């Protein structure tokens, strides 16, 4: 028996023991699973897990195509319904001269930007024009569970639903995507994703870059694998441990470049990939400032040379191109040096913007820090053997309950396996939370703001303080989308 198979056997043994219920003897459960596993399956599991230890590099962007900027969704003329969002199939010319079959919102690929303002009473008509069930999940929005768009809220082909909510949270960059049970990864991969901007009086008073598409740029990063026909063949590309590709699309643009003026430019980064993590930095080594997390502004700008985002995390950064050496080639790159987005710097801008020293009044109170841990989450496993607290998702099971408006402390632990484990991006629906600590230490400065998703490394313990404003049943899960579809998800009922 080869060494890979031996390690796989040991790994599977630990996974099964960690994931079985108290009513089943571990050795019997393990024997049953072992009998079901052939060498090919075990080899696939090894290969899937190892692909995240040695992640395939992205192809460098050649910069031959100007970055596409998502359109802004216009309000409907119809009285009583403010916006309409349609999930659709289409064909998109990602590669010159070739049409790729894709999914999109109000178009063939990706979706428009939905701009909301704090205090708005919003109505959205959601329509499923696909030939399969889907949902419309408003990632990061603090809304009632019955409009959140989790797996319980599936719309069948041809169905529509009008949802209503009040925008109660502060300025932030959120997004929307599908969340059907066991189909989220494929539908996002095929193109269902769109942005939400929330504005408020504070955001409009700060003097930050706000000219959409000029110095306020949305950037949706997604890696793909295209087959020989340049199609998104998800069934062929799928990896149960997280699908990772070699071809980067930003806002659906292949080989993008971004033309900017010599001014401060605000980049709203969204990791919209199924599983890939990104560490963003400038190829020149120059610094930038981070101004916002998932759910709002930091109190003060934080100067960084790089920022890492796991799937579904967002960060807003400002790059001052008037202070950079524009005689050099400038680009946003990944940690391994892959060129993600080349910049072409043109003329000096007449636009005046600034980065204020104080942007928010976010705080983690002593009372919150002293609260006892009331909920413990253990993330564990790989491939289709992933669990939370030893269990797979059951839509009929409520894992936790919490009182509306009451702050509780959750402790999230990423339990290593025989191979060391992998990062799990952990997301909670319907609320923004505060990070109390990572392994007992205060979080880094650029994480001291509102979050709805958090990266948890192997053997790391993270504590968060979370309060739900609304009632209902909400999901919590790993945002590696294949892990989510494989059952790494639970439910909290807010009463």
From TrEMBL:
Q: Which UniProt keywords apply?
A: Metal-binding, Oxidoreductase
- Superkingdom, according to UniProt? Bacteria
Q: What Pfam families does this protein's entry cite?
A: Cu-oxidase (PF00394), Cu-oxidase_2 (PF07731), Cu-oxidase_3 (PF07732)
Q: Which InterPro entries match?
A: Cu-oxidase-like_N, Cu-oxidase_2nd, Cu-oxidase_C, Cu-oxidase_fam, Cu_oxidase_Cu_BS, Cupredoxin
Keyword NAD set for record = no
By its UniProt entry, which CDD domains does this protein fall under? CuRO_1_CueO_FtsP (cd04232), CuRO_2_CueO_FtsP (cd13867), CuRO_3_CueO_FtsP (cd13890)
UniProt-listed PROSITE patterns: MULTICOPPER_OXIDASE2, PROKAR_LIPOPROTEIN
The record's comment on protein family reads: Belongs to the multicopper oxidase family.
Know the name of this protein? Answer: Multicopper oxidase domain-containing protein
Q: Which organism is it from?
A: Sporosarcina highlanderae
Per the UniProt record, the lineage of the source organism begins with: Bacteria, Bacillati, Bacillota, Bacilli, Bacillales
């Amino acid at each position: 028996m080869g060494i890979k198979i031996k390690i796989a056997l040991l790994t599977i043994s630990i996974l099964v023991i960690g994931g079985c219920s108290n009513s089943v003897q571990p050795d019997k459960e393990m024997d049953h699973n072992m009998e079901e596993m052939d060498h090919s399956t075990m080899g696939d599991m090894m290969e899937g897990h190892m692909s995240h230890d040695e992640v395939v590099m992205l192809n460098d962007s050649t910069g031959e195509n100007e970055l596409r900027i998502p359109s802004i969704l216009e309000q409907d003329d119809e009285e009583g319904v403010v916006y309409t969002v349609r999930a659709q199939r289409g064909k998109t010319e990602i590669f010159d001269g070739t049409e790729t079959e894709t999914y999109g919102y109000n178009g063939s690929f990706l979706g428009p930007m939905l701009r909301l303002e704090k205090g708005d009473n919003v109505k959205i008509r959601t329509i499923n024009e696909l030939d399969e069930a889907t949902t419309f999940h408003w990632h990061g929005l603090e809304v009632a569970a019955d409009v959140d768009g989790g797996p319980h809220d599936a719309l069948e082909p041809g169905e529509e639903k009008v949802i209503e909510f009040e925008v109660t949270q502060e300025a932030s960059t959120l997004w929307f995507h599908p969340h059907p049970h066991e189909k989220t990864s494929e539908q996002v991969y095929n193109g269902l994703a769109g942005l939400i901007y929330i504005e408020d009086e504070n955001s409009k008073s700060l003097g930050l870059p706000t000219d959409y598409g000029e110095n306020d740029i949305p950037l949706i990063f997604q890696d793909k694998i295209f087959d020989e026909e340049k199609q998104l063949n998800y069934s062929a590309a799928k990896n149960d441990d997280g699908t990772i590709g070699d071809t980067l699309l930003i806002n659906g643009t292949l080989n993008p470049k971004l033309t900017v003026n010599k001014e401060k430019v605000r980049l709203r980064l969204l990791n919209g990939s199924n599983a890939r993590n990104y560490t963003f930095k400038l190829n020149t080594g120059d610094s930038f400032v981070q101004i916002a997390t998932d759910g709002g502004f930091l109190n003060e700008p934080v100067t960084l040379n790089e920022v890492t985002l796991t799937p579904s995390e967002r960060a807003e950064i400002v790059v001052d191109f008037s202070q950079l050496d524009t005689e050099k080639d400038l680009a946003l790159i990944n940690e391994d040096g892959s060129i993600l987005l080349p910049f072409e710097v043109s003329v000096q801008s007449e636009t005046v913007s600034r980065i204020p020293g104080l942007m928010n009044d976010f705080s983690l109170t002593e009372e919150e820090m002293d609260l006892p841990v009331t909920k413990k989450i253990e993330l564990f496993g790989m491939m289709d053997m992933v669990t939370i607290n030893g269990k797979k998702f059951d839509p009929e099971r409520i894992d936790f309950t919490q009182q509306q408006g009451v702050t509780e402390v959750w402790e999230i632990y990423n339990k290593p396996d025989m191979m060391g484990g992998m990062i799990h991006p952990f997301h909670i629906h319907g609320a923004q939370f505060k990070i109390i600590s990572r392994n007992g230490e205060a979080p880094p400065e650029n994480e001291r703001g509102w979050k709805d998703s958090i990266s948890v490394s192997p053997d790391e313990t993270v504590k968060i303080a979370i309060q739900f404003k609304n009632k209902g049943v909400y999901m919590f899960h790993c945002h590696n989308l294949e892990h989510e579809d494989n059952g790494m998800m639970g439910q909290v009922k807010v009463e």
